[in-house]
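Notes taken during the Thursday session

The instructor put the following on the board and asked us to keep it in front of us for the whole hour. The protein is CinA family protein. We were told not to look anything up and to reason only from what is written here. First, the residues (169 in total):
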Amino acid sequence: MSNNDLANALLQACQKRGIMLATAESCTGGMIIAALTDIAGSSAVVDRGFITYSNEAKMDMLGVSAATLEAHGAVSRETAIEMAAGALARSRAGLSLAVTGIAGPGGGSAEKPVGLVWFGVGLDGWTVTADHRQFADKGRDFIRHETVRHALELGLRALGQHQPDGATP
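Then, after some discussion, the predicted structure tokens were revealed:
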């Protein structure tokens, strides 16, 4: 399934649930919200996208704590969770998708190599969850494209797994 197909499916799932969507993006620089808003009619469910490339932006726009960034770094489970929670709290969205990672070509380390991306998923009324992927270092474009794909898939999965009374998306 292409990223466009995934974005369309996520928009439809949000519309069916009657919820808005927000993104909090670092390494993708707005590619997730762009994939969603490229689709006509997306304004029915897309509320906003937070592009928080710097640590200051993560703190100012999303409320990520300085202590979290100092203790765990921008590319961490803890930061992804705080980004997703902040996007929910600072929007009208019922679903938030957050990404923070190292797209390369530089910036990686032994502990956090190029291709490491943490994802946060917030669904109103549920605990924010985190997931990570270590994408192959096949270049910045590849890592960012795969990050968008996985974020959209996580959004669909969240809506499918968290249905009240066993309903389906």
